[in-house]
Amino acid sequence: MSIPDALDRLLDPVEATTIIRTHTTVLPTERVRLAELAGRVLMEDVISDADQPPFPAATMDGYAVIAADTIPVRRIVGDQFAGTIEAFHVERGTAAYITTGAPLPPGADTVVPIERTTETAAGVRIGEMPRAGQNIRPVGSDLTRGDRVLAAGTVLTPAAVGLLASLGKTDGLTTRRPRVSVLATGDELVEPGQPLGPGQIHDSNRFALVTALAPLGVTVSYAGLAPDTDDAQRAFLIERIADSDVVITSGGVSMGRKDLIKGLLIELATVHFRQVRMRPGKPFTFATAGPTGKTLLFGLPGNPVSGLVGFEVFVRPALLAMQGYQQSDRPHARVRLIHDVTPIDRIDYMRVALRRADDGVLEAASTGPQQSSRLASFIGADALAIIPSRDMPYAAGEMVDALLLGLVA
Ligand code: AMP
Ligand code: MG
Fold first, then answer.
1. Which atom of ligand 1 is nearest to the CA of 188?
2. Could you count the other beta carbons within 10 Å of the beta carbon of residue 159?
3. Does residue 174 contact residue 28 with C-beta atoms inside 8 Å?
4. Is 256 in the pocket of ligand 1 (CB under 6 A)?
5. Reduced to 3 states, what is the DSSP secondary structure of residue 116?
6. C-alpha of residue 225 to centroid of ligand 1, in Å
7. How far does residue 271's CA lie from ligand 1's centre (Å)?
8. Tally of CB atoms within 10 A around 286
9. Does this model's pTM top 0.90?
10. Which stretches of 154-282 are assigned E, i.e. beta strand?
C-alpha cells in the first residue's frame, strides 16, 4: 500500500482545525420538544406573533388608581387578580386591589404599591402617589408582535427555551444529535474489572472519551474494544462508518508495526492529515468516509493524555459545529505563568491549574509531570496553557494563551 507523503506533513493546529472545519457540515434538522432542547442550537428564526404583555399589566401588588386623583381615601371597587379580567372601572375616588401580572382595570393609570397604602373602613388611604404609568408594563413592552425574538444559531439556554414557551411554542427546530462511535484498540487492553495478565493494562481511553462526549449532546451508538488485528478493526470501521456521523478511534496511529488504524483509514477512508505540530498528540489522524463522505473519523493516539488533548482541541469543536454551534471552541484567556517553562519544537498544551492573583490576573501553574501517559496531569487542570515553540525559555511572569476547560472560580 502506498502512502502519500503529503499526509505526513506536520500541520500547525490552526491549519488542522481549518481542514477539519471544511469537512464538517451541519447535521439535518428535526423538531424537538421544549424539555429536550437544553444546550442545543436553534436552527430557525422565531418571530413573536403577539405583543407581550398583551394587556397593560401591574408590576406590583397594590391598588390601581388614577394618578391625578387627589381624594385621600378611595372606595375599593373590587379585586383584580392575575389571570382574569373583571368588569369594573376605576374612577375618581375609587381604587381596585390588583396583583402583579394582573391586567390594569380600565380608567386606572397607575398602581400604588401595597406598602404605600393603608386600608381603612372607608377604603384605601394612599400615601405617596406614583406618577401616571408607573408600576405598569405597557402592552408589548417585553416583546412586540413581529419582533425576531430568537435568531437561528442561538444556543438554547434556559432563557431561550423559556422564551419559546412564552410564545406558546411546544418545540423548536434543531439539528439531530450526532451519532458517535468509539473504538479503543490494543492487544494489551483489558476491560476494567477484569484481572490483568502479564503486560496488560486496563482500557481507560474508552471511558475517558465517553465521559468527554457526555456533555456534548451526542448519541454514543457504540463504544468498544478491539485487538490489534486487521480483521477486527476493519470490520469495526466498515460497520461504524456506515452508521455514524463521527467515528473516534484510540491507538494504532503511530509508527509501530501494530499501529493498524493508520493503514486501515487509508484503505477505507480519505485521510486528510495525520501529524500535528503539538505535544501531546502529534500523531492525530483526520479522515472522512461513508456514502456521502460525511462521516468524520478521528484517529486519536493511544496515550491517554494525547487522546484527550486531541479530543479537546479538534474533536469537541467539530462535534459542536455539526450541531450548529457558531462558537465551538472553548473560551481562551491570557494567563500568567508562575514558573519558568522550557518550550519544545512543537506547540505544547500544558495542563495547568488556574487561580486569580491579587492583581486580578489568572495565574497558571503546571499540574505536575506532563508526560502523555500520565492521566493524573489532567486532574485539577483548569486549562491547557498554549506554549508556542521558540528559542528562549519562558520566564515566570510571562503571559500566554490558555484554553479554558471549565468554569474557573
Ligand atoms: P498506541 O497509540 O496504540 O501506540 O498506544 C500508545 C500508548 O498508549 C501505549 O502505551 C498503549 O498501551 C497506551 N494505550 C493505548 N490505548 C489505550 C487505552 N485504551 N487505554 C489506556 N492506555 C492505552
Ligand atoms: Mg496500540
1. 12
2. 9
3. no
4. yes
5. helix
6. 12
7. 21
8. 26
9. yes
10. 171-175, 179-185, 189-190, 201-202, 219-226, 246-250, 270-275, 278-279
The pLDDT score that the predictor gives to residue 3 is 55
Q: b/e for 294-313, b at 16 or more Cβ within 10 A? A: bbbbbbbbbbbbbbbbbbbb
Which positions ≥6 away from 166 have C-beta within 8 Å? 52, 143
Which of 194, 202, 205 has the most ligand 1 atoms within 8 A of CB, as the residue to mutate?
Answer: 205
What pLDDT, on a 0 to 100 scale, did the predictor assign at position 6? Answer: 75
The residue type found at 174 is T
Q: Which residues of the chain have pLDDT under 50?
A: 1-2, 408-409
The helix, strand and coil proportions of the chain, stated in percent and rounded to the nearest 5, come to 20, 35, 45
- Predicted confidence at residue 196, as pLDDT, reads 98
Cα-to-centroid distance, 253 and ligand 2 (Å): 8
Return d(Cα 58, Cα 43) in angstroms, integer. Answer: 35
Q: Tell me, using a 6 A CB cutoff, whether residue 250 lines ligand 1.
A: yes
Distance 216 CA to ligand 1 centre (A): 24
